[in-house]
Write a structure and sequence with these properties.
By secondary structure, the protein is mainly alpha-helical. The protein has four helices and four strands. The N and C termini lie far apart (65 Å).
Amino acid sequence: MNNYNSPNSNTSNNDYTLPPESTEVYGRPLKHSGPGIASFVVGLVGLLGHIVTFVLMSLALNNSIELLGSSISREELAFHPAVVLGSLAFLVCLVLNLIGLILGIVGLALKNRRKVFAVIGTILSGLLILFFTVLVLGGIYLT
């Protein structure tokens, strides 16, 4: 006999507990969690935002350095419009990743839902936050 109560059993316990590997409830397939799907989409948007921002910022700085010559000081480079706008864009993408991480955790906490998108979104957002935190801390302590 199974270790869980089936909906057709004649037990007095009305609780229906799914086995860990079950993908169906009462004969119908489980739905994907809404927050999990949102986490996955927000994580992808954050990843694409980081990539696009990095490429555009690199191109803008490369063109500016070639035009101004190689004698740019750190202070002039720090206040360059490409650096300022790129930094703001990275912060917006990090906020998106934080939202994706929270949505992924909410999606993981939902019962009777598939958790594939929630797991992928949580891992993607968490890794991006970790990567850019390490980058910022490395930049602070290595200069």
